[in-house]
Amino acid sequence: MSRPDQRTDDQLRPISFLPGIAPHAQGSVLVSFGNTRVICAAMIEEAVPRWMQRQNVKGGWLTAEYSMLPYSTLDRKQRDISRGKADGRSIEIQRLIGRALRAAVDLDALGPRTLWVDCDVLQADGGTRTASITGACLAAALAFQNLIENKVLNASPLRQWVAAVSTGVVDGRPMLDLAYTEDRDASVDFNLVMTDDLQFIELQGSGEEATFSPDEMNAMLELGRKGITELTALQKQALAEATPPPPAADLDSLASHFNRS
Fold this sequence. Notes:
alpha+beta; 5-stranded mixed beta sheet; Ribosomal Protein S5, domain 2
């Protein structure tokens, strides 16, 4: 049985990056994993959190925020400000994004600054957290390149590339990069966050009213490694093509980007 979009079990969805989507951010990108689309923007604040000042912690800090826009899903998603409290899932994902990027960035080299990364989901079709992490790393790299161009930094604090991808078991078959309908029907769901040299940062995996065997886990890990290798290569290509920093994306660029996806 083929997948709904005719991919092979070890194939990523079409991946694309459109830099310069948020002109006021030092680095930004619209990342697409198939029909999942996320705006990731990185901004530099010339200060560190108060707790770092009080504890005399040297270097900089990095933090992330994640949200799903009300129109990102078929049914309107209520904004957190309307609900009066933050969504637990959003808090979990933004902490994951922050942990992933802090493993990739040399905070001492960043200096006494805070890198804010905002990930806003425009359209959700499975894998919003993995698309957010992958796009956030590229947005950070673009922000660092901007600081180098403006002679604020001599070198990029990005020590290594970080990407994330989902795997799972659907109808007894291990698969890479699950779209929503596959994720919904999966008996096992895994998310992998890894560096470009295939070191693990975080693994999130569980059976959905099911168990999974060591062989299935190994198969998912192997699929994940393949996906991470491809994603980090695409990140590096996108940064190379966006240097010097790109102009703000115009409507024609957006239309072309969505048509390609």
